[in-house]
Amino acid sequence: MKFGLKVNPATWDEAATWAGIAQDAGFDGLWTGDNMRNPRDPAIAVHDGPSLLAAWAATTTGIAVGLLIANVVFRRPTLLAKQAVTLDHISGGRFQLGIGSGVWPTDHAMSGVPMWTAAERAARLSEFTGVVERLLSGDVSDHDGPYYPYRDAALTPPPVQRRLPLIVAANAPTALAVVARHADGWVTFPGAAAEEDFHRASAERIRTLDRLLREHDREPVRKILLAYGAVTPWASADAFARTAERYGEIGFDEIVVYAPKPAERAVFDKVIDRLGDWR
């Protein structure tokens, strides 16, 4: 099992502190989000994800840095591909890119984008991810898709990594099919679901994803759990261990946890002292 730390810092001092903690504790990845604002409370500070990652990429070593998840609602795939290449160069080949279709009404509202139907959201995710994959692979031919057409593309320089890892957030079968066609990893999270319901649904989604990968003659992809909501790894050290064991048993090979709240810090400190025990 691998472990990542996701941080949505309010200040650069906070961002730098958590980057140092993640690196020193031996986390495999350091992640942040991609929202225009906090979807529940506009008073909570939110920074631009790629900008923050550029700073982390320049001030850390060894640990992977990544975006969970780039928001299709207010990003163009051509621009995101260029940002991904730049971040890959700044980090020396440590950048990982998550992509998701965007579900928060506040992101749509602040971007001036009407809420999409589920069908349009799936279609946009498929085209968007396909475009990013094509560009990062060096295919800069013109594209005439319904949502993200472009001409005269160039992507110079190419990424440092031979294949920059693409991770797609997906729950519905249509979105899981995007993972099977284009991605190197899959990420899911509970949202508002109860833990038992989420665990059961995740096991079914893993079976569906593995079937789709076989149909596309592709190797297995990374399966990442973004733990929050009903999944509470900071309740105790035993809760962290149970989370790793319970979700590892159904096929997850990576867990990304949020930076702890002040009341959870004592548990966090106990866990990072034993992080290697759960690998």
From TrEMBL:
It holds the Pfam family Bac_luciferase. Gene3D superfamilies: Luciferase-like domain (3.20.20.30). This is LLM class flavin-dependent oxidoreductase. Keywords: Flavoprotein, FMN, Membrane, Monooxygenase, Oxidoreductase, Transmembrane, Transmembrane helix. Residues 10-221 form the Luciferase-like domain. The keyword NADP does not apply. The chain crosses the membrane at residues 53-74. The keyword Transmembrane applies. It comes from the Bacteria. Signal peptide: none annotated. PANTHER family: ALKANESULFONATE MONOOXYGENASE, ALKANESULFONATE MONOOXYGENASE-RELATED.
